[in-house]
């Protein structure tokens, strides 16, 4: 997993819960990296899982809700690092439906070895989208947070339903209805 995901996560934890919480989740996790991350480094997903687990236990916020907030927070990274990507679209449905065939291609130019989930468009209209998410990591709520911010970016709203195809969250269907 790319280091920027870790560095931004720890920044979010510090912003929302304080430096003591960052210290707590790092100290209480068994991290190969010892909690020392660089934005360009590559780290095991198990480290993120441990950090999330300890944060969830300490805050009593579910991991899914933490990932949702983190996805919304991470959208600003995309705004800063790839503003041209956002300018390429005028509609959130168009942008979200282009994740696999455009956005992930651009992400791979910056992070060639990034392990990204796959998104398959099942059905698309001007105001709706059905999208299947597959990943070895159950971070679908992170994706949901990014989708929420995508709609906000375009001054639009939507109802986004999440249906787990596999109970472990590695295979999920997003059903999006733009308001």
Keywords:
single chain; 179 residues; H-NOX domain; 16% strand; globular
How is this structure best described in words?
With 179 residues, this protein is of the alpha+beta class. It has 2 domains: 3-61; 71-178, H-NOX domain (Alpha-Beta Complex), CATH 3.90.1520. Helix content is 53%, strand content 16%. It is built from 8 helices and 4 strands. It has helices at 3-17, 19-27, 45-59, 63-81, 83-87, 92-97, 99-110, 140-153, and strands at 118-124, 128-134, 158-164, 171-178. Strands 1-2-4-3 form a 4-stranded antiparallel β-sheet, with helices on one face. Helix 1 (3-17) packs across helix 4, helix 2 packs across helix 3 and helix 4 (63-81) packs across helix 8 (140-153). The chain starts with a helix and ends with a strand. This is Heme NO-binding domain-containing protein. Residues 2-161 form the Heme NO-binding domain.
Number of helices: 8
The overall pLDDT, averaged over residues, is: 93
The CATH superfamily label of the largest domain reads: H-NOX domain
Strand order of the largest sheet: 1-2-4-3
- Please state the CA-atom Rg, rounded to the nearest Å: 16 Å
Pattern of helices and strands: HHHHHHHEEHEE
Biggest β-sheet: count, sense, barrel? Answer: 4 strands, antiparallel
Strand content: 15-25%
Query: How many domains is the backbone divided into?
Result: 2
Helix content: 40-55%
The chain-level structural class is: alpha+beta
Q: CATH topology of the largest domain, anyone? A: H-NOX domain
SS elements, strand count: 4
CATH architecture assignment name of the largest domain: Alpha-Beta Complex
Shape, please?
A: globular
Gap between N and C termini? 34 Å
Low-confidence stretches: none
CATH C-level class of the largest domain: Alpha Beta
